[in-house]
Amino acid sequence: MSRVPSSSASYSPKAAVQIPKSSQQGTPPTPTSPLPPFRSLPFNFQDMTMADPKPTFSYLAGEIKRRYPNFAYLHAVEPRVAGTTFRDENDIRPQEENDFLREVWAPKPFISAGHSRETAIEAADEKGDLVAFGRQFISNPDLVRRLEQDLPLSPYDRATFYIPGNAAKGYTDYPFLN
């Protein structure tokens, strides 16, 4: 058993590694129905930071992988994103990177952070990352085609994210390219 890191007095990864087990509610994972994914935001999310999140998140990812080998995947957000905004490159410290998660998690984690086509290709080529697109996926129903053919992406409308009521607005009303 790995030693639980003590990088934060207010956060215990011991409880977090129990979440996948409790989310199963008696339904064992199968090859066609693995455990749900885990999303990791170790560096800056809603103004919550740790002096050094690597020990905590390394432990957490490692324990989830060890305890739940059928876990669907790990989704990590690059430190250049802070919630709904992008951080200035000059504000990102050199030690703020997800390489430590790439070392703990196999197969490769999904990495997201507002990638453009170019930065996604670079991440895949240089680090072997599986790149996830969120906001751009919503606003581009033909995202794969646009990326493959280097076509322009439609901008997303954040004001329509997570709103009650007319759920179609902002989710199903973006056009396909002809």
From TrEMBL:
GO terms for molecular function: FMN binding; oxidoreductase activity. Residues 28-39 have a biased composition (Pro residues). InterPro entries: Aldolase_TIM, OxRdtase_FMN_N, Oye-like. Residues 1-17 have a biased composition (Low complexity). Signal peptide: none annotated. It comes from the Eukaryota. Residues 47-153 form the NADH:flavin oxidoreductase/NADH oxidase N-terminal domain. Residues 1-41 are annotated as: Disordered. PANTHER family: NADH OXIDOREDUCTASE-RELATED, NADPH DEHYDROGENASE 2-RELATED. This is NADH:flavin oxidoreductase/NADH oxidase N-terminal domain-containing protein. It comes from Armillaria ostoyae (Armillaria root rot fungus).
